[in-house]
Design goal:
Elements (H helix, E strand, L loop, with lengths): L1 E10 L4 E9 L2 E6 L15 E4 L4 E4 L1 E6 L14 H10 L2 E7 L9 H12 L6 E7 L5 H12 L4 E5 L8 H13 L3 E5 L3 H13 L6 H5 L3 H17 L5 E3 L5 H12 L5 E5 L1 H5 L22 H12 L5 E2 L32 H10 L6 H15 L17 E11 L18 E11 L2 E5 L2 E2 L17
Parallel strand pairs: 1-4, 1-5, 6-7, 7-8, 8-9, 9-10, 10-11, 11-12, 12-13
Antiparallel strand pairs: 1-2, 2-3, 5-14, 14-15, 15-16, 16-17
The structure holds N-(aminocarbonyl)-beta-alanine and zinc ion (2 copies).
Length: 465
């Protein structure tokens, strides 16, 4: 099967130019001008031609932070690997790396891997990988990090809060091992003890409204944990460290300080919600929609994060997609914010928001957008250049974006299972026209054309530092 995308304005992380892209047998084989002139149109049953005149052509976006079908004990995220990946691809994302949930206490890493294979296989409509989740550390787990890597999972997530948080010695041991095997350790950074104390204090005082979710998880409690992890990574010999969902200026300061000291191998992710929403959401009637950790911050933090993206301090924008119905699971928190399952949807809105609020408003360039949504996540997590690139040999994963299109974002336009979007009413500049995975059109306008189970497991390699 051959597909040609002609006359598009092609954007990569470093270049942009007018041209055509030829995809054959799922891979990009050629990029150039007037490719159709040189082609034998009748070979192998001809070629599907897509005219991208007036549109931007970007690599398929890669979301390295999702929680499909996440079981948090009291609730289960409402997007399974089918609904969630349909939403993802309709928003221009052609690959995800999902953070596997905690399993029963004491299980080996492969226990969750086996469980997640069953959750994703036959459902995911786009290509997918998983991050391991470390919930305890011993010699067996450390040895298993190596076998997980050879099974295509060269990354592991560590939580510094929640039930299975690790202590400093455990963190250090994981970091050392992951460095040895060329893998990356991802961290949810918040100071657990301070947060638990503040949550209890507010509850004791009868302060149970959603705003206390934000007040019990202050920015400095995040920044303290970011600084601690960075020092532990330095202690472990400059081990690669990836900070997930960084949300505030103070945490960014800690990252910049570590880099100024000369520390390398630090990767930073933020998410659209921290760029465009603020803690004012917790004062709204529908505040429960926005209960996530870390919480939304201030306008000043949003501005600092945009600057961090523009100056290269932040490498990746992922989503932390973790949807619970507002009308159902989220209501568990109506009398007590601590009972509300943490997390919010966003897998479909990411590219549109980053283009509309970022590139179209001049806060970041199109190259920076491609870098943060496509190329860096693929490179850091061992999928480059198959994913995240427009190069001969890369997978034919592409997004065709019309910069002149515009619409109002509403829940009705969304394709996932959840009953709300955090961005209701946002005026979006730019409209996705088509999304291709391995040369096949999976999205045409707002129509999903792919098939259940069409996605493949991505056997990832070492981190490209
Ligand atoms: O509130 C959030 N972010 N829920 C998902 C799990 C996590 O912490 O990433
Ligand atoms: Zn987290
Ligand atoms: Zn998460």
């Amino acid at each position: 099967m051959r597909t040609i995308i002609k006359n598009g304005h092609i954007f990569t992380e470093a270049e942009d130019y007018q041209g055509d892209i030829l995809i054959e047998n799922e891979k990009i084989v050629c990029i150039g001008r007037n490719l159709m002139q040189d082609m034998d149109m009748n070979r192998n049953g001809g070629v599907e031609v897509i005219d991208a005149e007036g549109c931007y052509v970007l690599p398929g976006a890669v979301d390295v932070h999702t929680h499909m079908d996440l079981d948090v004990g009291t609730a289960r995220a409402v997007d399974d690997f089918y609904d969630g990946t349909v939403a993802a691809v309709c928003g221009g994302t052609t690959a995800i790396v999902d953070h596997m949930a905690f399993g029963p206490a004491g299980v080996p890493l492969h226990y969750q891997f086996e469980a997640y294979k069953k959750l994703a296989q036959g459902k995911a409509v786009i290509d997918y990988g998983f991050h391991g989740t470390a919930q305890h550390v011993d010699d067996e787990i450390l040895a298993e990090l190596e076998t997980m890597a050879s099974d295509g999972i060269p990354s592991v997530k560590v939580y510094l809060t929640y039930g299975f948080k690790l202590n400093d010695a455990e963190v250090y041991r994981i970091l050392k091992k992951m460095k040895e095997i060329g893998g990356v350790t991802a961290f949810h950074c918040e100071n657990h003890d301070v947060i638990e104390y503040l949550k209890q204090k507010y509850r004791d005082e009868g302060c149970t409204a959603p705003i206390y979710h934000a007040l019990s998880r202050p920015a400095l409690a995040e920044a303290e944990a970011v600084g601690r992890v960075l020092k532990l990574a330095l202690l472990a010999g400059d081990a690669p460290v990836y900070i997930v969902h960084l949300s505030c200026k103070e945490s960014l300061d800690a990252v910049r300080e570590a880099r100024r000291r000369g520390q390398k191998n630090i990767f930073v992710e933020t998410c659209p919600q921290y760029l465009v929403l603020t803690e004012e959401c917790y004062r709204r009637e529908d505040a429960l929609k926005y209960i996530m950790s870390p919480p939304l911050r201030t306008q000043e933090d949003c501005e600092a994060l945009w600057e961090g993206l523009a100056d290269g301090s932040i490498q990746v924008v992922a989503t932390d997609h973790c949807p619970f119905h507002y009308g159902r699971e989220k209501q568990m928190g109506k009398d007590d914010f601590t009972a509300c399952p943490n997390g919010a949807p966003g897998v479909e809105e990411r590219l549109s928001l980053l283009y509309s609020e970022g590139a179209a408003k001049g806060r970041i360039s199109m190259h920076q957008l491609v870098k943060a949504l496509c190329t860096e996540p693929a490179r850091i997590y061992g999928m480059y250049p198959e994913k995240g690139a427009i190069l001969p040999g890369a997978d034919g994963d592409l997004v065709i974006l019309d910069p002149k299109g515009a619409y109002v974002l509403t829940q009705e336009r969304m394709h996932g299972a959840v009953d709300y979007t955090c961005y209701e009413g946002f005026r979006i500049q730019g409209e996705i026209r088509k999304v291709l995975q391995r040369g096949r059109v999976l999205v045409d306008g707002q129509r999903f054309l792919g098939e259940r189970g069409g996605g493949r497991f991505i056997r990832r390699g070492a981190c490209l530092l």
